[in-house]
Amino acid sequence: MRIIKATLEHLDILCPLFIKYREFYGEAPFPDSSRDFLEKRLRRDESVIYLALANDDEGRLLGFCQLYPSYSSLSLKRVWILNDIYVAEDARRQLVADHLMKQAKKMAKETHAVRLRVSTSSNNDVAQKVYESIGFKEDTQFKNYVLPINSD
């Protein structure tokens, strides 16, 4: 497999897998809105998306990850948030996620980031094991909270 950085030209192959990712987490597919969302992130350089492509004639998409930049006021450095990672069902158990995360880690080092952050469902044991296998540590120093911002 090969890992490449996504561009606007990859939207047609990325969108179907992005929609499956959203559905995996119980969200409605919204194909047009999903494509628009990804296009805006790429066009505005608001995220970095890596694609894992098969080494076959079709170059089919095996998985993707999307990272968002953030910053640490305490360390005065960049932080990357590994916000989305998904592997196609027929490509699982082929180390696709490992390759994507290794590329994310490489990019974080190249941009002089102080750390890479990731969150996952508390019951997603498979993802937790994968993250730990490449060096992620569970954050025991900080407890995270979420404040939903509703439209009402």
From TrEMBL:
PANTHER family: L-2,4-DIAMINOBUTYRIC ACID ACETYLTRANSFERASE (PTHR43072:SF60), N-ACETYLTRANSFERASE (PTHR43072). InterPro entries: Acyl_CoA_acyltransferase (IPR016181), GNAT_dom (IPR000182). Residues 1-152 form the N-acetyltransferase domain. Gene3D superfamilies: 3.40.630.30. PROSITE patterns: GNAT (PS51186). It comes from the Bacteria. SUPFAM superfamilies: Acyl-CoA N-acyltransferases (Nat). Pfam families: Acetyltransf_1. This is GNAT family N-acetyltransferase.
